[in-house]
Amino acid sequence: MNKKTLSLVGVSATLFLSSAAPVSANPVPTFGTCLNHNGHKTQVNTGSNHGVVNVGSFDGTDTIYQSGSNVMHVCVQAQELDTKLTG
Q: In a designed cystine with 65, which of 9, 28, 39, 49 is the match (CB 3.0 to 4.6 A)?
């Protein structure tokens, strides 16, 4: 193989491997988001030391919603993030 063909194969392989394919969840999850939760509020915690696994601890508020017998949804609103977003 000459250098031109080898380069063309390398570029083509890179483009092929980096092409994005559409993805979707199957089945579509039934749980809500923090902006649009579908459960009832069970607990609100304010103050310091709200931990997020593999991220860290934050001062702020976390709210817990229950949307099923064994389904809980925790939303963390960190003061540090609010400060960065609002100035």
A: 39
Q: What does the mean pLDDT of the chain come to?
A: 75
d(CA 3, CA 1): 7
What pTM was computed for the model? Answer: 0.50
Task: Tell me if 21 sits within 8 A of 49, measured CB to CB.
Answer: no
Kindly report, residue by residue over 46-83, the tens digit of the pLDDT.
887 777 777 777 888 888 888 878 888 888 887 765 44
Write down the domain spans for the chain. 37-87
* Non-local CB neighbours of 40 within 8 Å, separated by 6+ positions: 65, 66, 67
End-to-end CA distance of the chain, in Å? 58
- CA torsion sign, 33 to 35 to 36 to 40? positive
Helix, strand or coil for residue 52?
A: strand
